[in-house]
Amino acid sequence: AIIDDLLKLARFGNNKLTITTIDMEALFKKVWQNLTNNTSTSAELELASLPTVDGDESMMEQVVINLISNAIKYSSKVDQPKIKVGYSIEKEQPVFFVADNGVGFSMEHYHKLFGAFQRLHAISDFEGTGIGLLLVKRIVENHGGTVWARSKENEGATFYFTIPKQQLAK
After folding, report:
1. What radius of gyration, in Å, describes the C-alpha atoms of the chain?
2. What is the pTM of this model?
3. What are the C-alpha distances in Å from 53 to residues 13, 86, 123, 124, 138?
4. What is the pLDDT of residues 63-76, one digit of tens each?
5. Pairing of strands 82-90, 44-47
6. Does the pLDDT of residue 3 top 60, yes or no?
7. How far, in Å, CA of 45 to CA of 51, rounded?
8. Which pLDDT does position 84 carry in this prediction?
9. Average confidence (pLDDT) over 71-91
10. CA 81 to CA 102: how far, in whole Å?
11. Where are the beta strands (DSSP E) in the chain?
12. How far, in Å, CA of 167 to CA of 139, rounded?
C-alpha cells in the first residue's frame, strides 16, 4: 500500500496539468458511488450543488477520492456517520469542503496533517499509509490552490480546498 501511494505521489505530485472543465458535483457523485460500492459503510452523503472548475480531472478525482475515503474512514466509528460536501465563494473563487462527524483530530497536531507518513491516529484504529493528505496538498497546490482543515477531537473534521480560476486560464 505504501509503494502504491508513493507511486501516486510521484505520478500526481507535480505533473503537467491537462486542463478541462470539471463538473465537481458529478465528480463527487461518481467517487461516492465507487467508494460506497467497494466499502461497507452506513455513512450518508449530503452533497450540495457544486460549480464546475477548470483543472486536471484525473488529479482532481484523486483529491476527491482521498478526502471522501478519509471522511468515510474517520466517521466509521460513530453511530450515524454523515459526510457533507459543499462550497462557498471567497474572493470570487470557489472553496470546496468535505466535512464529517467522525473522530476528528486535535488542532495541536495540525502541523503533521499534510506531511508524508504522518498519522494522527493509531494504525490499529484506522488503516492507512499517511500519504493521502500529502497527495491532496500537492495536487491542489499544483493547480495553484490551497488546502487546509479544521477539527475538534470527537467532533469531526472539515477539509477545504480552492482551485483558483486565474491560475488555470493560461
Report:
1. 15
2. 0.83
3. 19, 14, 35, 38, 18
4. 999 999 889 888 88
5. parallel
6. no
7. 18
8. 98
9. 91
10. 7
11. 19-23, 44-47, 52-56, 82-90, 93-100, 147-151, 157-162
12. 13
